[in-house]
Amino acid sequence: MSTPDLSVEQLDKRFADHVAVNRLSFAVERGSFFSILGPSGCGKTTLLRMIAGFTLPDGGDIRIGGHSMRGVAPNRRPVNMVFQHLALFPMMSVGENVTFGLARRGMKPAERARRAAAMLERVGLAGAGHKRVDQLSGGQRQRVAIARSLVLEPTLLLLDEPLGALDLKLREHMKIELKQLQAAFGTTFVYITHDQSEALVLSDHVAVMNHGRFEQVGTPQQLYYEPAGAFVAGFVGANNRIPGRALGVDGELVEVATAQGWVVRARRSGAIAAGDAVAAFVRPEAASIELDAKQLPPQAVHYAGEVQSLLFDGANSAVLIVEQQTRFEFRVALPQTGRLADLKPGTRVFFGFDPQRALCFAAAAAAGDEHA
Amino acid sequence: MPQRPRLATNMPDAPAPALWQRRVMLAVLLTPALLWLFALIILPHIELALLSLRERIAPRTYAASLTQYRTFFAEPLYWRVFVRTAIMSALATALTLLVAFPVAWIIAKIAHGRASRLLFVVCLIPFWVSETVRALGWLILLRESGVLPALLVRLGITAVPVELLYHDATILIGLVYTSLLFMVVPLVSSLESLDNSLIEAAYDLGGGGLVILRRIVIPHAAPGITAGCIVVFMLTLGNYLTPNLLGGKNSQWFTELIYTQFIVRFNWEQGAAFGFLLLALSTGMVALGLRLSGQRFVDVMRRS
Fold this sequence. Notes:
The complex is a heterodimer of chains A (about 375) and B (about 300).
Chain A: E1 6-14, E2 19-28, E3 33-37, H1 44-52, E4 59-64, E5 67-68, E6 79-82, H2 94-104, H3 109-122, H4 138-150, E7 156-160, H5 168-185, E8 188-193, H6 196-202, E9 205-210, E10 213-218, H7 220-225, H8 230-235, E11 240-250, E12 253-257, E13 263-268, E14 277-282, E15 287-290, E16 301-311, E17 318-323, E18 329-333, E19 348-353, E20 358-362
Helix pairs in contact in A: 2-3, 2-4, 3-4
Chain B: H1 19-52, E1 54-58, E2 61-64, H2 67-74, H3 76-110, H4 113-124, H5 131-142, H6 147-154, H7 168-192, H8 196-204, H9 209-237, H10 241-247, H11 254-264, H12 268-293, H13 297-303
Antiparallel strand pairs in B: 1-2
């Protein structure tokens, strides 16, 4: 395998009262789209700023394209950054924004103009060079910010939640555009976000970050279907979190009882013994709902409940059910066919899930990581 | 309970004021400012303009003439002091900008919270003291028997105490000191509005400190710089006390000439003409400055 474009070794950063990045090591392959996903305050921005060179690490090393970045100033690193609010220069035209970096390298004006024009054309802004930044739409500014960085042919492009400020419709559109741009240029992208959907849609690999460490690094599919711990299971995608104690362990399956006494079964992940505090996770789409218990899949354990509310959201519609005896709130995805879309609150229903598609983790590691 | 649909308005009961009512209100609110402008600025200037355009031909007899302006150009002392005042004021403005910029940068970008507010207050403190007392402070420091010459002797830098007052440099120091705050305030507000990520982005794209200053910081702060320069230049040009006290008799300021004409020589006609020449100078210099920096007066005053 070739040298990774970015490799981080034992990186450490502490601020007065907390550890922002805690002895972190990882590598990003050449040409891949790597996302760092985490809640706000998890240290991802600090990590990105250390890679860009704006923040100095307390320990460890960052190697970009095989070279150590120790003592290398941001303006000498082969990385460029797309800022959260893009940070386009309002005092310059679009063309001047794109040529700014080239001019710093001492390139001749004619060559600069030629490269800037070619780059603007590649991002679909041909002929926009003379425009002022404030004449562009949000999506066009995004493309200028990327063009301004990519024209310098960096080894690594860092993106700091660049879609955060856009409205939903544009964000969905820009997600696709970003992925296509990355594929077209082949530059290694390191993208940080707190939006799991951005990370899943865009990335080849995602690192889930929490408290200055990576909880798990893997493909989006691995994170979704095989979360390594309770934090990842709770953070990536929608999930029903059922906290409780392990009543008994039967090979692969754990029997979990909630404090109110609801008993469910889930597949064991990691070492769990009877009596341990655990949390079971069931994805809404792994559970089924029927008006008649007989129609539920045979491998599912059935529970009776009552519809609390219907959360209609097109293909992502779900229904919130409270379990009959323990009043535990449970979310089940509605069938895509539109069947049951007319459920009314208060309706008595049956629901269940295949224990093989539910995961059970020891809860100790998850303490304090709960996300509302 | 029966419910009637109600339109949501800010004032459900009172109808919106009629147009004439709003106009009357506006007129009432503007009256003090307009009166002030008219009684203290426009009226005296009309009077001065008329004064400057006449000549005394016999006791209590006057005739319209341009003699006052002709005298100004004919007498080298007058126009030399005029040019000198203009150059010194421009120099003082440039020096003030040089001194104020790092101060404003520290207040706006480097210090945070309390420290930043404290630094601002430190800039303000000299203004709690009257200008006269401040100028006298410089006298105490700089005169031959003062603090600084004594210190220079003590340190062995000069053999005997030297007179540090009454030089052009002394006037410049005094003027910069007096004007500093008026430059710092607009600079701080324009630098504060500069998004730090622009600086970082420029750095990230390969820019060094000087490039960032020239391409990012100064263009962004241009309205603030221009506003500060206009205010400081006008204040300096029209300053009387500081050049008078620190400059002594060898270095006349144009305002001193105006004072002499009005008060000492009782030649109001000549003094009025000088006043108008000073007004023309300050207007012309400001216009030139705006032209050179590519700014518009209205934008500068609105943005800073």
